[in-house]
């Protein structure tokens, strides 16, 4: 499906088969010299076919096309390895590029998940069925690194880079200040909530995400072009909703912790998730994985605020409310 958004700016919907997200938006900016494609899709056949058909219909010459990738996740970055030609520039951010270049260390994920109470028998399945691992790009990619306020000029469009860490360490959006459009990647979505997960002890993604939301709130934006689902206009309102969503989740987590110290997996199983399954036990394993990662990011946030404390007992980590902290 191709939708014209503005002159020379199109949305091509790339399918994500068997995934609740259903599709990812790839934005194509056409120009006689160089075209720009923002985000691509999973590295799999159906996505490649849809993208190639879309580009052909738009009359885009792939040998005159560059790519901007908002973040590391395979539904955005995966397909670029099958599309880029020897003349393509692949614009990316430093932190996600470092992560990509260091390769996936599955052991780190396994150990961290185990530490947080993820059941041993479900652990391997969770990783092997994870679409982000299955459909990722696995070749070396030469990235052109962009930073805050760097610009990309394509015809009438002058895009400014906006660093928006949270969904990933280096997530980056594009802002066109004259046309007031904002290519949001997975920073701000409309009818779904970007997942904020943590699978290491190294950062505080929810804190960074909320800071990035406050930053974008100040921008003059008329149209948000998100990574998934349709474009929307009420950016400020949506930012407030997203902030409220996370506050509610933090509050719920504190209530769960009032029952006593628990590991992250146990806490996740008692939280409210916007998902069609009736009970935690019926969740597909990948959804349990996402929910656990989301829980850990919120626990980290509460821990840094001094509301929650963590303790390692043997090879298991448990969280409890910090009784010295007044909420
Ligand atoms: Zn993502």
Overview of this structure, please?
With 327 residues, the protein is α/β, with parallel strands linked by helices. The chain has eleven helices and 14 strands. It has helices at residues 45-57, 74-77, 80-83, 94-101, 106-115, 120-128, 131-134, 205-217, 235-257, 264-270, 285-304, and strands spanning 2-6, 9-15, 23-29, 35-38, 65-68, 90-93, 143-146, 151-154, 157-163, 172-176, 181-185, 223-226, 308-313, 316-321. The strands form three sheets. The chain has a seven-stranded mixed sheet. Strands 8-9-10-11-12 form a five-stranded mixed sheet, with no helix packed on it. Helix 5 packs antiparallel against helix 6, helix 6 crosses helix 11 (285-304) and helix 10 (264-270) crosses helix 11 (285-304). The longest helix is centred in the C-terminal third of the chain and has 23 residues, at 235-257. The mean pLDDT is 94. Bound molecules: zinc ion. Zinc ion (ZN) is lined by residues 71, 73, 167, 186.
Provide mean pLDDT, rounded.
94
What oligomeric state best describes the polypeptide chains here?
single chain
List the ions, cofactors and other small molecules found in this model.
zinc ion
Strand content: 15-25%
Strand order of the largest sheet: 1-2-3-4-5-6-7
Task: Give me the secondary-structure category.
Answer: alpha/beta
Low-confidence stretches: none
């Amino acid at each position: 499906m191709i939708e014209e958004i503005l002159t020379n700016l199109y949305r091509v919907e790339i399918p994500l088969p068997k995934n609740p997200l259903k599709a990812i938006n790839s934005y194509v900016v056409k120009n006689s010299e160089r075209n720009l494609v923002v985000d691509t899709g999973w590295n799999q056949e159906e996505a490649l076919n849809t993208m190639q058909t879309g580009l052909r219909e738009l009359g885009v010459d792939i040998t005159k096309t560059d790519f901007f990738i908002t973040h590391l996740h395979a539904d955005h970055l995966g397909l670029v390895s099958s599309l880029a030609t020897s003349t393509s520039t692949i614009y990316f951010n430093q932190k996600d590029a470092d992560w990509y270049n260091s390769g996936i260390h599955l052991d780190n994920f396994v150990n961290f998940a185990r530490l947080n109470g993820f059941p041993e028998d479900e652990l391997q399945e969770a990783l092997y069925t994870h679409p982000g691992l299955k459909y990722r790009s696995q070749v070396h990619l030469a990235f052109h690194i962009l930073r805050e306020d760097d610009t990309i000029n394509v015809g009438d469009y002058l895009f400014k880079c906006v660093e928006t860490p949270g969904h990933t360490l280096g997530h980056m959006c594009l802002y066109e200040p004259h046309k007031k459009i904002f290519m949001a990647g997975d920073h701000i979505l409309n009818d779904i909530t970007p997942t904020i997960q943590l699978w290491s002890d190294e950062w505080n993604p929810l804190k960074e995400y909320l800071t990035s939301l406050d930053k974008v709130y100040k921008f003059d934006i008329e149209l948000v072009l998100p990574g998934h689902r349709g474009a929307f206009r009420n950016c400020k309102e949506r930012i407030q909703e997203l902030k409220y969503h996370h506050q509610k989740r933090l509050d719920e987590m504190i209530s769960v912790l009032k029952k006593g110290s628990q590991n992250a997996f146990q806490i996740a199983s008692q939280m409210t998730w916007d998902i069609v399954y009736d009970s935690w036990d019926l969740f597909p394993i990948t959804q349990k994985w996402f929910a656990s990662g989301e829980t850990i990011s919120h626990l980290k946030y509460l821990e840094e605020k001094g509301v929650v404390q963590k303790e390692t007992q043997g090879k298991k980590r448990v969280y409890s409310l910090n009784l010295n902290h007044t909420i």
